[in-house]
Amino acid sequence: MEAQRTDAPRPTKGRVVMLVDNKVDGDSRVQKAAESAAAAGWDVVLLGLVRSGNGRTWKLGDAEVRLLPLKTPLAKRHAERHRSPLRRPLAYPPGPLAAYRRQWAKAWRADLAARRAALKVAPQAVGSPLFRRVEKLRLVVAGPVSRFLQKWIEFRARQSSQAQKAGRALRGPVDRAFTALWKAAKGRRAWRRLEPVLWDYELTYGKEIDALKPDLIHANDFRMLGVGARAAVRARAAGRSVKLVWDAHEFLPGVRPWEDNAHWIPGNTAHESEYAPFADAVVTVSEGLADLLVERHGLKEQPTVVLNAPDRPVERDPVLDDDDAEPEPDLRALCGIGPDVPLVVYSGSPGPQRGLGDMVEALPKLDGVHMAFVVPAPAAGYIQGLLRRAQELGVGDRLHAVPYVKHWQVVRFLAAANVGCIPIHHWPNHEIALITKFFEYSHARLPLVVSDVRTMSEVTRSTGQGEVCRAEDVDDLARAIKAVLADPERYTAAYDKPGLLDTWTWEAQAEVLDGLYTRLVSRSSKAGS
């Protein structure tokens, strides 16, 4: 008898909807979490976003990824929508009026010039002798009046531009007073006035989450915490049991924000404080951050630590691997250098506080050494500025910027270097965690050069896997790199210690995450039975 064919879906432990406020590509923690949870038997849908264009969908292992188009009309600040009488009382209101008035003044001046010329070359065409005499008098008065009016309009237009620029920057005394007022009036609900853009995320993700009917929502970082909490509340109000996991990647009060203004930190921390109590469990990246979260939010349980560890490296099998598969990129080939050239690598998000500028300044002190920045966008303005600075220093041919690779390729890709560098500056979040690149360099068995931020320097000294330099000290950075290059075996011997790298793998972290999901969903099932 012929076997019956079935298209029934595979049994799962439950549906997990993961939320992240980025395009997923480049976020290795989120990608690995989604893929490993799906491999462990969960029905996983990962929701991310695109800031322009249409959304798209693809598979990440057995997990489904959906990118939703994000529109942010609520990101417009008050000064971009309203007149700012306290900042610039003479400014035009936002909108087209300033441009209209400028053009109107120019048109009037052009008209006056044309009328003067007509009186001179074609008086009969202008009108009667009496009209021409009146016209001459009008032009005598209109000339200086139009010049004054044009200058007045230009002044008000500049006031408008300055008001909107200051209003977007949100760094002045008016902005600090506005923040203090709403914090005093609303407390942790003040984000609705200080950071209303957070509602744009809610309106992008909310209906999609509701339609998926998850058993568990995994909200990555602070923006998604509110989105996930409100979705869980709606589901529970409708009679469905949904658990919320908040994955805190950073200590928000210690973040160095891209938007350095009076509203950003107070608004986002208020939002986080309002919704932290809704989480059924908290996940984070280090014990230090876990302690800070307990203290800040009064958590009843210690957060579960899931390290930003990489996948366990897998050796390629030249026989079994598909010959038609996409070839893995070669770091040295991308830099255009041979196998014997000393190569120092930095891999990760760029930024002044991450010490890339210090690496460039140290390069002239390192004869024959090349450096590679493995970054999301090598053509970005900040990276191009570093490349120009290297040219000014006469070492432009020894600095290279190359793009990210797939997260499962990272370790083998980085292993082509001689040194893994993490010269980050002192900043609260830099002090408390072992960051992703620390584990990636370790699995690539690279000797490390790290700055003296607390946690990372302590671990590096205890394991002996690298040198520690003073943050923002170019000479000491160059000293540490020279020391590692002079005796690399001294540092790579640390990786032979039994068990050191085994716990620094995503496979070990995935088991922790799967155990947490299972505990929460099982508890929910028992409560509902």
Describe this structure in words.
It is a single chain. With 529 residues, the protein is α/β, with parallel strands linked by helices. It is built from 21 helices and 14 strands. The chain has helices at residues 28-39, 78-81, 97-121, 123-126, 129-169, 173-186, 191-194, 198-212, 221-237, 264-275, 287-297, 331-335, 356-362, 381-392, 410-414, 428-431, 436-443, 454-463, 474-486, 488-492, 506-528, and strands spanning 15-19, 43-50, 56-60, 63-69, 216-220, 243-248, 281-284, 304-305, 343-347, 370-375, 399-403, 419-422, 448-451, 466-469. An 8-stranded mixed beta sheet has the order 3-4-2-1-5-6-7-8, with helices on both faces. Strand 1 (15-19), helix 1 and strand 2 form a beta-alpha-beta unit. Helix 1 (28-39) packs across helix 21 (506-528) and helix 13 (356-362) packs across helix 19 (474-486). It is globular, with a radius of gyration of 30 Å.
Which class do the helix and strand fractions yield? alpha/beta
- The parts where pLDDT drops under 50 for at least 5 residues are 1-7, 317-321
Physical arrangement of strands within the biggest beta sheet: 3-4-2-1-5-6-7-8
Taken as a percent bin, the fraction of beta residues is 5-15%
Number of helices: 21
- Helical proportion, percent range: 40-55%
Oligomeric state of the chains in view: single chain
